[in-house]
Amino acid sequence: MEPPFFAAFVTWFEPNYNGVPLRILYPNLTALLMFRILVPVDLTENATKVCDFALAFSRHASHTQMVLLHCYQDYLDESTTGNAFSDPASASELVTDRVLLRNQQEAEEKLDKLYLAIRKTHRHLQLERVLMYGLPEECIKEEVQRFKPDLLVMATKGESNIARTFFGTVSTNIIKEVTVPVLTVPATYDNTTIKRVLYATDFDKSDTAALNTLQQLVQPFGAVIECVHVADEPNSSEQAELEALRQKLQQTATSNLNYTLLDGADVADALQRFVTEQAIDMLALTTRSRTLLGSLLNPSLAKRMVLESQVPLLILHAAE
């Protein structure tokens, strides 16, 4: 039987006891040290970018398991179907024999190519590929239940209103349906380093747990965390709450934490300005799926930030 203190050390980064890694002291518990990342990919050029960002986390973990998930659907190519749809029976046969099989084969080939490219450069990584038929929202939820990831990393697009709306809808739907941390990465974002992180606080009781999770995720990067509260004409009461948060966290902090009271009537705009002015690499906030308690816990703000953020956005889920 393992000693009772063991559970306190089992986290996703390299834990040790008196300088000796626990994976060496207790090799039979390697599975407990595993950090699991789920990465849905669309198999376009954006897939490489989102994988690179996810892999940045794997390089700092002693044992990482990553799943590449692709969800494919039927689509019809008029150049191959011609006027076949004048005959319902012929149309059905074409969908079955040409479209579905072709889509699956093309998806398998692209997913295999991405899988092999990552395997070639990340041999330490336990990598798995999963191909599923269906809508992304449903497939991702199903894979989350099966794989139980510690982190879900998704790409978002912002080149056009149509693309932004579609991919934002997928991401925001997933955020509402799962309870694991979700990291959205803009398609235009190329950096994979995390040196400065903004955590948006609304002085909710969930802040302590959320910041503990955030510190575990970014500690290996040596990142500074900026705890920011946005208020329209900040007052002494809000300053006192920010100071109370600092005192609560200082005893257990494992990262460099700074605290800022930011003036702004629009929370999202104020956060975006801070991100630009302070060269923030990642933004984090907490949301609730079923309640509307405070501006930062409002799902509508999380949705807006997913659609508009120019840097990776980490969504943490408050306990209901």
Please outline the helices and strands.
Blueprint: H1 6-9, E1 16-17, E2 20-21, H2 22-25, E3 35-40, H3 45-58, E4 64-72, H4 78-81, H5 88-121, E5 126-133, H6 136-147, E6 151-156, H7 161-177, E7 182-186, E8 196-200, H8 207-218, E9 224-231, H9 236-250, E10 256-263, H10 267-277, E11 282-287, H11 299-308, E12 313-317
Parallel strand pairs: 3-4, 3-6, 4-5, 6-7, 8-9, 8-11, 9-10, 11-12
Antiparallel strand pairs: 1-2, 7-12
Helix pairs in contact: 6-7, 7-11
Describe this structure in words.
It is a single chain. The two termini are 34 Å apart. The protein is elongated and about 65 Å long. The protein has helices spanning 6-9, 22-25, 45-58, 78-81, 88-121, 136-147, 161-177, 207-218, 236-250, 267-277, 299-308, and strands at residues 16-17, 20-21, 35-40, 64-72, 126-133, 151-156, 182-186, 196-200, 224-231, 256-263, 282-287, 313-317. Helix 9 (236-250) links the parallel strand 9 and strand 10. Helix 6 (136-147) packs parallel to helix 7 and helix 7 crosses helix 11. The chain contains eleven helices and twelve strands. Strands 5-4-3-6-7-12-11-8-9-10 form a ten-stranded mixed β-sheet, sandwiched between helices. Strands 1-2 form a two-stranded antiparallel sheet. Helix content is 43%, strand content 22%. It is of the alpha/beta class and 320 residues long.
Placed side by side, the strands forming the largest sheet appear as: 5-4-3-6-7-12-11-8-9-10
Unreliable residue stretches: 1-14, 21-32, 77-86, 158-167
**Structural class designation:** alpha/beta
Task: Please outline the major beta sheet.
Answer: 10 strands, mixed
The shape, in one word, is elongated
Q: In whole angstroms, how far apart are the ends?
A: 34 Å
